[in-house]
Design goal:
By secondary structure, the chain is α+β, with helices and mostly antiparallel strands. The chain has eleven helices and 15 strands. The strands form three sheets. The protein has a seven-stranded mixed beta sheet. Strands 5-6-7-2-12 form a five-stranded mixed beta sheet, with helices on one face. A hairpin with a 2-residue loop joins strand 6 and strand 7. The longest helix has 19 residues.
Length: 428
């Protein structure tokens, strides 16, 4: 980060992951995800607007607008005020950097729910959680002045404002292999059309889920991966062998492996693949494969190599000297090629914790991922208290994969309740 004499004139380099998103983002590929918190009361728009105006300047990475330089994009402090809106359309829409007062995030509300939609170039899910929780706390202090008068209006003790580029901090020059050039099986099916995005939330009892995972001796993420792969194999591939593997992109929070409290992007994409070579597989066979592959990928040594590969590519002097418009062409070509290497994505954001004094007002949290042309369906997971929410977002008409997934959980004795955003009425 570089800093000029005046506080309001700060500018920031984009982190390693962020550099791709301004290039590929469009109305067809928004690179936007949504995190929501549902309260036990209806939202007061005026107080929510107040809360957004108070909290945004605390977080430098949110308080910016996107600027185009000669060699790279960069962020500059945004002197305008962010504006909230009532939710009126489908989630994870493209955020035009020249609208919304040039902010790269969007706050909306609907009845009891506050939505935070974030352009992935700003931060990852961890950063969004930190921002939304501070926004939630500030809103509740404004909405319940008397009951919460004993609380300070300053940021909570859980807040982090660290702007470190942790990719650069943990970069080590080494020989790497990258992600490989293998193509993946692509999901098939008719699209919903228009701007429709079908969302299905599965509300899962955490206790019964953990019991099943303990029985299989796997993690929750490994279990979900296996059920998702089986669902794709049975319902979309029709149990037919294929020369193309199902390859699941699994973003991993690198803060769990490297000491970092940054609110910027700090994750790596780990690939878990499964090649269907016959017509019948038991769930246990798929699960054993997933467990072995994920454990091989989820090591600090492997993640260090991924950091080295990603950061090392931008350090070549001849690439750094290329003007931005040429870099953009190259990045788009590379992205289009790499996108063929994934079937879908599943991201587990883990447990979301709220400070005790605010818990009585909070019902639950949700996450939704924006889809893309090569990944018309994506999945994301988060948990709060005794409930885990598994969310499918999809632009495909067919819901057989989702049906199979939740049915499998039920067959294993896991309590599940499914809710739709209204696109898939028959699922609820």
């Amino acid at each position: 980060m570089e800093e000029n004499r005046r506080e309001e004139d700060k500018w920031h380099k984009l982190d390693n992951t962020a550099k791709i998103y301004p290039v590929i983002a469009s109305s067809q590929l928004s690179s936007v995800y949504r995190m929501s918190v549902t309260l036990k009361e209806k939202i007061d728009p005026k107080k929510l607007q107040q809360a957004v105006e108070i909290v945004t300047p605390w977080f430098e990475i949110f308080h910016v607008r996107l600027r185009r330089g000669v060699f790279w994009y960069y962020y500059e402090t945004n002197k305008k005020l962010p504006k909230i809106e009532e939710e009126f359309t489908y989630p994870c829409r493209y955020i035009d950097p020249y609208s919304n007062n040039q902010y790269l995030f969007r706050v909306s509300y609907y009845e009891c729910r506050i939505n935070l939609e974030v352009f992935h170039g700003l931060t990852d899910g961890n950063g969004a959680i930190l921002f939304l929780k501070e926004l939630l706390y500030q809103y509740l202090r404004l909405a319940h002045r008397e009951e919460l008068s004993f609380l300070s209006d300053m940021p909570s003790q859980d807040a982090s404002f660290n702007m470190e580029d942790s990719y650069q901090k943990y970069y080590k020059k080494m020989k790497t292999e990258g992600y490989g050039k293998e193509y993946a099986y692509q999901l098939k099916g008719d699209a919903l059309g228009g701007l429709k995005v079908g969302v299905l939330h599965g509300y899962i009892d955490l206790k019964s889920l953990k019991q099943v995972c303990k029985g299989y001796q796997v993690s929750v993420t490994q279990y979900f991966l296996a059920v998702l792969i089986e669902s794709i194999y049975v319902e979309n591939m029709n149990k037919q062998p294929s020369s193309l593997p199902i390859r699941i992109n699994m973003p991993v929070n690198l803060r769990a492996f490297f000491e970092s409290t940054t609110i910027r992007n700090f994750f790596a994409a780990v690939i878990v693949g499964f090649l269907a070579e016959k017509e019948e597989y038991t769930f246990e066979e798929i699960l054993d494969c997933v467990k072995a592959r994920s454990e091989k990928e989820l090591t600090k040594e492997r993640l260090e190599k991924l950091i080295s590969y990603n950061v090392g590519n931008e350090k070549h002097w001849y690439l750094r000297m290329l003007p931005l418009f040429i870099k953009n062409i190259g990045i788009k070509v590379i992205y289009e090629h790499s996108a063929k290497g994934f079937t879908t994505t599943i991201s587990n954001l883990g447990i979301i914790k709220v400070l005790p004094e605010y818990q009585p007002y909070v019902e639950r949290f949700h996450f939704i991922m924006g889809v893309s042309k090569k990944q018309p369906m994506k999945c994301i997971v988060c948990s709060y208290q005794e409930e885990i929410v598994f969310t499918f977002s999809s632009v495909l008409e067919d819901t057989s994969i989702q049906r199979h997934f939740f049915k499998k959980l039920s067959e294993h004795g896991i309590a599940v309740k499914v809710e739709s955003n209204g696109v898939y009425y028959e699922m609820v």
